[in-house]
Design a protein that fits this description.
The protein has about 325 residues and is α/β, with parallel strands linked by helices. Strand 5 and strand 6 form a beta hairpin.
Length: about 325
């Protein structure tokens, strides 16, 4: 099991990327991590050699403000492009980066290639659920395609259901369509057309429309939407969690000794709340619908999210998820 890692992608690369890889390499002996990037800088962080960590030198880096498609085509010696080609050429089984999201989407689509039968790949992210019924829920698309077609949303439902079954072990995952009301006739033309297709999709357990206010209460195992809406929801959840913890901390620090003592007594409970709202422990966002796993973690990721993302990729490869999806969509093509 070999994972290509863009060691130069992200705000804290290569330091935090390498540290996360070291932690994963120590725990997952059966996984070989191939780090693409500036060899000297990587070795400065690595400090010692590991049997399951390899380094492939790359001269160039795709920066966060680079044009996605142009950078993929022009920076052939960049860490991301070289890592993507290694997956295309079957030297490695999956690609992981914390770098430029648009460039990674372009590398996945243009270099690794789409799965047969998939119109447009979508980004799937996993979030915590506050419900006692389920620990997490998945949402797709969270930003790969701002403009989606009903077909795309229908395919996302199948992709998300397979992920929920194979990786998270949910036997009959429920699928909800994100909308501005639960009634069947709610939403714009895209939502209505997608609803009609989802109702007829025999590969999923469709429960109808769901509202954004119910997402964190675990209304469905898989929530499907267009990439523009999904990305807005992703950033709203992320921003709300950060703001909530900031407000709590500010209230404690600004209200005298009694508040500080109370905060000290609640320290463990507040840490539990913070951990519950931290979705980075579930890994990165999966660019679903490609011929191999391509995973994007947050640009500001530290060693811990990097470790969790590698653990996530390991689970995807172990369950043969992609093989089953390829078989499913090839069957759909033949109908």
């Amino acid at each position: 099991m070999r994972i290509a890692v863009d060691a130069m992608g992200g705000d804290h690369a290569p330091d935090e990327i390498v540290k996360g890889c070291v932690k994963a390499a120590k725990e997952f002996k059966e996984v070989t991590l191939v780090l693409y990037g500036n060899e000297q800088k990587i070795r400065e962080v690595l400090k010692e050699s590991y049997d399951n960590i390899e380094i492939v030198h790359a001269e160039e880096v795709i920066k966060s403000d680079d044009d996605p498609v142009k950078s993929i085509r022009r920076k052939k010696e960049s860490s991301m492009v070289k890592a993507a080609y290694s997956v295309k050429n079957k030297e490695n089984h999956a690609l992981f980066s914390a770098g430029n999201t648009g460039a990674l989407l372009a590398a996945g689509t243009l270099i690794i290639g789409r799965m047969k039968g998939i119109d447009r790949p979508g980004l799937l992210a996993t979030f915590p659920s506050l419900s006692t019924e389920r620990e997490v829920f998945n949402m797709i698309d969270v930003g790969a395609n701002a403009d989606s077609k009903p077909l795309n949303i229908n395919q996302y439902a199948t992709l998300g259901s397979y992920y929920s079954k194979k990786v998270q072990g949910i036997a009959q995952p429920t699928v909800g369509l994100l909308n501005n009301g639960t009634e069947e006739n709610k939403g714009n033309e895209l939502s209505k057309a997608a609803y009609a297709m989802l109702k007829e999709n025999q590969a999923i357990n469709f429960i109808g429309n769901v509202e954004a206010r119910d997402l964190l209460n675990g209304v469905a195992d898989v929530v499907v939407t267009d990439g523009f809406t999904g990305n807005a929801v992703l950033k709203t959840i992320e921003g709300t969690a950060l703001s909530l913890m900031s407000v709590i901390k500010g209230t404690i620090m600004e209200n005298g000794i009694k508040a500080k003592v109370g905060g000290l007594l609640l320290k463990d409970s507040l840490k539990e709340v913070k951990d519950l709202l931290d979705y980075s422990k579930y890994g990165g966002a999966v660019l679903f619908g490609l011929k191999a796993p391509v995973i994007k973690t947050h640009g500001s990721a530290t060693a811990e999210p990097v470790y969790h993302t590698i653990k996530q990729i390991k689970g995807m490869l172990e369950t043969k998820l992609l093989e089953e999806l390829i078989h499913h969509f090839e069957g759909e093509e033949q109908k």
